[in-house]
């Protein structure tokens, strides 16, 4: 059985843009966010309070927060790798944040410059402060279906870190196929194993489409009961620390698939596709998303 409705978490403005080489004007980012909200997205990851030396594209985080539309019911989570990022995010007005860990030691080092255990220690004070201030914290877990440096990752290793993040107070664990190498039965097994430790209702799928498997993988885990899906408009993005990682699965491809199966998303597909074309014109890059290409401008 499929869920009757799916929550889409739009990560394009963060995961999509963090990897772009050129400078992107803050106003372009804000217009993108505004268009996404107008298209019906209710959770839009707006930016990341990470080190500007590590990810220069997110250096304008404070200006992005200051320019966000004030729309009731719309949530704008941001990434925070440590207490410094958390404090800056809250000072800038964030009411919802996300910490990010990895299921692979090597990826943890490349991405956040510390071991998995050290990263969890760094998140403790973030979770404690967040709880005090009534701020929701999402927990991302990278490399759940494979690592660019270590290859295969055991589902049990994923489940172990997912459980730690959840016990620490993360309200939802987003399972990332960072390199997009997963296939449907592997995705199914991974989610089944994690679901023994964390309730399915509190899991999200964050799949990248590098190998063209993302929709198939999503279908496999939706059938298990996953009802939150992260995606990126136009399939923008990748990860600076996962070589060859193309974008997250395109939001319009996910919405097209879900609507075709009678699953509600609250998203206006036409407006979303228009937004995908708009941002691609701004970035001057070819459209990867097949749904956006097929539906045209
Ligand atoms: P570090 O260099 O080990 O940190 O970086 P440090 O604590 O030693 O500090 C070094 C300097 O950075 C200091 O400044 C700190 O103040 C500063 P200095 O004294 O040298 O002038 N600093 C900060 N500045 C701004 N904001 C902060 C911050 N923290 C320290 N929050 C750190 C460690 C975690 C900061 C760094 O590695 C980092 O920022 N990494 C970010 C990596 C990133 O953004 N990756 C992409 C997002 S994750 C992703 O895409 C995966 C996901 O989509 C899921 C999936 O697909 O799998 C979520
Ligand atoms: Mg990602």
UniProtKB/TrEMBL annotation:
**Does the record bear Metal-binding in its keywords?**
yes
The protein's enzyme class: lyase
Q: Which UniProt keywords apply?
A: Lyase, Metal-binding
Q: SUPFAM superfamilies in the record, alphabetically?
A: Aldolase
Give the record's pathway: Metabolic intermediate metabolism; (S)-3-hydroxy-3-methylglutaryl-CoA degradation; acetoacetate from (S)-3-hydroxy-3-methylglutaryl-CoA: step 1/1
Give GO terms for biological process.
Answer: ketone body biosynthetic process; L-leucine catabolic process
| Signal peptide coordinates | none
Q: What is its EC number?
A: 4.1.3.4
Pyruvate carboxyltransferase domain location is 6-273
Q: Which Pfam families match?
A: HMGL-like
Where, by residue number, does the polypeptide cross the bilayer? Answer: none
InterPro entries referenced in this protein's UniProt entry, alphabetically: Aldolase_TIM, HMGL, PYR_CT
Which GO MF terms are attached to this record?
A: hydroxymethylglutaryl-CoA lyase activity; metal ion binding
Read off the Gene3D superfamilies from this record: Aldolase class I
> Which superkingdom is the protein from?
Bacteria
**Similarity remark:** Belongs to the HMG-CoA lyase family.
Instruction: List the protein's name.
Output: hydroxymethylglutaryl-CoA lyase
Species this chain originates from: Ectothiorhodospira marina
Recite the lineage of the species: Bacteria, Pseudomonadati, Pseudomonadota, Gammaproteobacteria, Chromatiales
